[in-house]
Design goal:
Elements: E1 12-19, H1 28-42, E2 47-48, E3 52-54, E4 65-73, H2 78-91, E5 106-112, H3 120-127, H4 131-134, H5 153-162, H6 175-181, H7 184-188, E6 191-192
Antiparallel strand pairs: 1-4, 1-5, 2-4, 3-4, 3-6
Helix pairs in contact: 1-2, 5-6
Length: 193
């Protein structure tokens, strides 16, 4: 499934894919693969990472996940892309009941090129939010780039397959550099499927 990575420019859309519950498509691996097929039907020139088995986050909150990432080009506004992702999640029975709980499918809009939404101050606020507050607070607007991407190996490992050179517009590091900054223990339990 892995294609050669592109030189990621500012019009590239980065999406993280994951799931750890059965859907109508089958087990989490089958669900992620079926979701990728739907994404390929919606967005052209989609590049997809390998699939990975990753521990639940936070640790102990459920079965292991199957994670992947994809990149594609789009002229659509971020809100329209997010709406499409939410429709695909709903097609697989995604229900938003418990933060960080078990789910059939999770499609996270990670970045739209170098777009910062709603602005640098708000993005930085959510990026710096301590973990204990992340458990109970959620933004009421789309935040781009995703405020937790630099902290999550389960996002960065798949992204490194397809977008290693994408640079976070506020941190100033690319995916490979952000991944290298994480403790080795964060990457140790992530296994290619």
């Amino acid at each position: 499934m892995l294609k050669d990575s592109l030189d990621i420019s500012f019009d590239m859309i980065l999406v993280a894919i994951g799931g750890n519950a059965f859907s109508h498509a089958g087990d989490p691996c089958a669900t992620v693969r079926a979701a990728i097929a739907m994404l390929q039907a919606e967005f052209s020139d989609l590049m997809v990472s390998n699939l990975y088995e990753t521990p639940s986050f936070p640790a102990g909150t459920g079965p292991d996940f199957v994670n992947a990432a994809c990149v594609f080009r789009s002229a659509l506004p971020p809100e329209d892309i997010l709406s499409t992702l939410h429709k695909i999640e709903a097609d697989f029975g995604r229900e938003r009941r418990l933060r960080w709980g078990q789910r059939t499918l999770d499609l996270d809009l990670i970045a739209c090129g170098g777009t910062i939404l709603p602005d640098s101050a708000v993005q930085t606020h959510w990026r710096a939010l301590p973990l204990d507050r992340q458990k109970t607070e959620t933004p009421d607007t789309l935040i781009l780039p995703h405020p937790r991407l630099q902290d999550r190996a389960f996002v960065l490992v798949p992204l490194a397959d397809v977008a290693p050179n994408w640079v976070h517009p506020l941190i100033g590091q690319n995916v490979t550099e952000m991944l290298a900054r994480l403790p080795a223990s964060n990457r140790a339990d992530i296994k290619a499927i």
